[in-house]
Amino acid sequence: MTVYDLSVTDALLSTTRAVRKRLDLTREVPREVINECLELSQQAPTGSNKQGWSWIVVTDPAKRAALADIYRKGAGTYLQEAEQDAAAMSDGGQTKRVMSSAQYLAECLQDVPVHVIPCINVEHMVENPPPVAWAGVMGSIFPAVWSFQLALRARGLGTVLTTLHLRAEEDAVELLGIPNGVQQVALLPVAYTVGTDFKSVKRPPISEITHWEQW
Ligand SMILES: Cc1cc2nc3c(=O)[nH]c(=O)nc-3n(C[C@H](O)[C@H](O)[C@H](O)COP(=O)(O)O)c2cc1C
Questions:
Q1: What is the Å distance from ligand 1's center to 179 Cα?
Q2: pLDDT of residue 90 exceeding 80
Q3: Domains in the chain and their CATH numbers?
Q4: pTM to 2 decimals?
């Protein structure tokens, strides 16, 4: 017995990719679509059922341009170097393609119509947090981020989870007026996708990474 149509569910789960080169920079994204996807993301789990998240949605062109500058400042030379390193890897060019795509995004981020910055409350985070605190904080936002990404994909939109702007996160705090005790965790550039036919990719077999009963 299955509860949901597995051909649809499994396709959604296995083909929701990091989209960069196929973000449609020309098509407007209605506010209602973003709200609908955010609404769905609110069903994600959180530690102690706290829902300590907030979401900053940026569509203003000047602010998007500033965020793109912050992203590039954060990236520094990382993407170029990673692209060069990837050329030597024997993974069928997968990492090289990712890095070339990441380089493209860094160049056109300002033109992606919507930037979404998920945030989590860290007011009660202790100094030098133990593993349980890190897991509690990050684990209370990334499930919602992924739900948001899946909801976008189901509606013909795409995004990619990025973190490089966090290397210059203070600049974004100032630009967007983010209060103390609120931690940004990512920047998601959101747009309709050019075509919707995304595919699953090759990953290491689960037999290599799964430990039944004992490591
Ligand atoms: C924690 C995290 C941070 C990431 N940061 C960036 C980033 O700053 N810039 C970027 O272009 N992609 C970033 N990515 C996207 C990954 O490169 C992408 O998920 C990976 O290459 C797999 O691509 P796929 O999901 O299409 O298989 C990040 C992904 C994760 C999970």
A1: 27
A2: no
A3: 20-74+111-202 (3.40.109.10)
A4: 0.96
